[in-house]
Amino acid sequence: MERIVRAAMELLQAEPEAGLEEIAAAAGVSRSTVHRHFGSRQQLVRVAGMRAQQDADANQTDALRPPGELAGGPTPLDVADVLNKVPPHLLGDQIVSEAQRLAGVTSVALYLVDIDGTLLLRLSGSQEFPSEIDAPLAVGPEVPREGLPRLRALIEAELPGSVMAPLLLRGRALGVLLAVDAPEQPLVQLGRQAAAALALGNVYTDVFDAARRRKETSPASEIQQNLLPPRIARVSGGILAGNVLPGYEIGGDWFDYSRERRRCLDRGGR
Fold first, then answer.
1. Pairing relation of β-strands 108-113 and 119-125?
2. Which tens digits make up the pLDDT trace of 75-88?
3. Residues 179/187, Cβ–Cβ less than 8 Å
4. CA-to-CA dists, residue 106 to 155, 169, 177, 246, angstroms
5. Which residue segment(s) compose the domain that 14 sits in?
6. Which of 76, 175, 186, 253 has the greatest number of beta carbons closer than 10 A?
7. Residue 180: phi, psi to the nearest 5?
């Protein structure tokens, strides 16, 4: 029974629609043997899913994982799994490794938008890519969706042959994945999951915030920056955007907003 469950876990991760016959072959048993232990495919899938969850919760090893281990069935990366198994400061390296697996190339780099929205700064990946790329298109460390076509054109002009996949979360790109001569669609799918993993992982490490800076900030500025609301917020009937620059020293300007039941208020001043 254990062999069947393990085989189902591995096969369903790669082929979510695999049937009992394929699972039996992967386990090295007959289909009738599978039926003796599990009355239906649905039951086996449920048991395999529960076992996978137990394995994730019982994980005792924080380290980079082999590419593909953290795939979530039809998704290229299971966000909960990667956050549970990979130390937050290594998330960038894990995302690059997954991109190399999916695209079948080695030249991959992960960039984050810097704190004042003028550069893409390389967090992880091949040093064949520049450490920074001019990209004066962002609102703080985020590129709004409407700025992506121009950013794509800038990257194509500066790095011919590079494919760009934005790390999109709630209509804003935290950064981009770049790969040379790679298929775009797998990277785009990975970028969506990677954005969520980085946004959640940021709570547990300062590596990403440090990568977004080009010089040290004062403690007061650090506190101020962490108290700011999201720079791009989508609310019913509109988009609200704001920024504080440069963010390296504390100043008197402030920006905030609050959403009430029937209206959205913004506040700014000294």
1. antiparallel
2. 688 888 888 889 88
3. yes
4. 19, 26, 13, 35
5. 2-57
6. 175
7. -95, 125
